[in-house]
Here is the input.
Amino acid sequence: MDTLNHTHAPGARSWLASANTAGADFPIQNLPFSVFRRAGSQEAFRGGVAIGDQVVDLAALSRAGLLKGSAASAAQACSGPALNEFFALGPAAWQALRYGLFALLESTASQTTSEAVRNCLVPQRDVEYTVPARIGDYTDFYTSIHHALNVGKLFRPEDPITPNFRWIPTAYHGRASSIRISGQVYRRPMGQSMAPGATAPAYGPCARLDYELELGMFIGPGNAQGEQIRMDDAEAHIFGICLLNDWSARDIQFWEMAPLGPFLGKNFATTISPWIVTLEALAPYRQAWDRPADEPQPLAYLESAANRASGALDIQLEVWLETAALRDHVLAAERLSRTSFRHQYWTVAQMVAQHTVGGCNLQPGDLLGSGTISGPTETEAGAIIELTRGGREPLTLSNGEKRAFLEDGDAVIFRGWCEEPGHARIGFGENRGLVLPAIGR
Here is the structure.
């Protein structure tokens, strides 16, 4: 999956001009997947691939007969309202479709071919998206040592990280039913919490609402129950990656997490971006993964030479905040932080291996969250609880507004991309979610 091929060539161009725009998210080297339909229509949702400012309608492409062999079969598997069948086909089919699409969209394609493909394009400005798979199970990991240190110091400054963090990629099982696509609007959750100094908990709207900057990994082929996925095989079970916001009700979360894990503090909303960037598209941005010599080294089942050589992914990530006041005055959203996924303590392969080591059976379409992604500096925090020191040091925006935690009317926007000289930019698009006032009593 990390081998470069002709689809990564930085000089490759498409006959579609918008795919060649400098700084654009979706050049021909990317080709991410979604499920879409024309906005406001009663059309069936179906699979699509981004190219420039257009979506390749894979159902229309299948009907046109422009692909052959396994590429045609793979495109047909994308013609329905969820991509699970396509995910289950595995890396050979994924690559066949990528190669087939690349050939149809490349500038060297014949005029007859390009005109036929053009008839299968839908402008992105005219579409709406839905969750791209039937997500049977959702697991959220906790794999950033910088996030763990930042949050741990707020509550346990003398011992901020639990002993197991450096030995296993820990996780909890989340709620798949409340996962929605970018543009999600949700109500501030109600729940029970214990205020500092109080002697009894109170019930009411969350007072410490937060976001968590994460990546989501969609599972391709699964494993039989009782059979673990080994490190050398783990990435063959990951189709691709999206942006994920694990909204968090911190006051509810910290009261209920004694002794069990997250429940109401996490299950009310999770927002994912519509585009899934394949692992193959990310191959140019792999980096060596290492563990400092003075840190515990992974046990053998979480270790592999391939993971050491190229297990880290240099995905640039930003968090932006758009308040109601900024929106009302037509002012731009403000950036709160920027970091990279390369800082993560555990890799995506290690997450998959850990998930299955006890015999848990993953299935096509399952979603894994990376856990909050924070970097080593103060400006790289992936959650507002880190940026504001638990709410004690509120942020001040350019219009004078202050934020200790999220307020009603706030929209949180994630953006992600990979970019460096000598390689094509690979973008993830945008992940946006909006907070509305609570309802309930």
User: Anything to note?
Assistant: The first strand starts at residue 33 and ends at 38.
